[in-house]
Amino acid sequence: MEDLVIAAPEQVLLDVVGTHAKFPVRRVYCIGRNYAAHAVEMGHDPTKEPPFFFQKNPNNLTQASEFPYPPHTNDVHHEAEIAVCLASGGEGIPEDDALNHVFGYALALDMTRRDLQGAAKKAGRPWEIGKAFEHSAPIGPIHPVAQTGHISSGPLKLTVNGALRQEGDVNQMIWKVPQMISYLSNYFALSAGDVILTGTPEGVGAVVPQDEMCISHPALGELKVTVIT
Known about the structure:
Blueprint: E1 13-15, E2 22-24, E3 28-31, H1 36-41, E4 53-56, E5 61-62, E6 66-68, E7 76-78, E8 80-86, H2 95-98, E9 102-109, E10 112-113, H3 114-123, H4 128-131, E11 137-138, E12 143-144, H5 145-148, E13 155-160, E14 163-169, H6 177-185, E15 195-197, E16 205-206, E17 212-217, E18 221-228
Parallel strand pairs: 3-15, 5-11, 6-18
Antiparallel strand pairs: 1-2, 3-4, 7-10, 7-16, 8-9, 8-15, 9-12, 13-14, 13-17, 17-18
């Protein structure tokens, strides 16, 4: 065993439905504006864009039931997503082989400091300050493909305090899961432990402390997260 000059960072481990074993996280990729109606509500024409991705940090993923409202912002938005968790990877993965690399799927939230993201966009700067802050990616337990099959359709919904905010069907994604995996693998060496957040339907909006968010999909159940101070 190697001697370390500092303690090794803690490995991020996610719960998996039906087992006590954990899923170790390596990287987190997030696709932007992958539902046409959301792209329009954000002021973009989805027919004119190739796919684009940004990253969150592995330790931004959290399976806690509470989301601490982050500092230096007055406009934190929810974005309901499906997470794709990889069991293997590679480079130059063909689309027709891409799903063979998927371990399972989970419900997730891409929480966003929208005011800081907007300022970064305006200045032509990276988005991390708006996207990759602590606790910014609440995620539910992973459902193995062996249990659910591949998630290519079905209603993805998010409510806040019981009121419907976001609703779309997974089949409305502009770039489907095999396309995302293949595209990413042409620019990065994908690997087991990588997580891909697949975009959000229309209806993103602000939350405040004491709000309860609930994201759901028929194959993946519910994920409830309460905003706290």
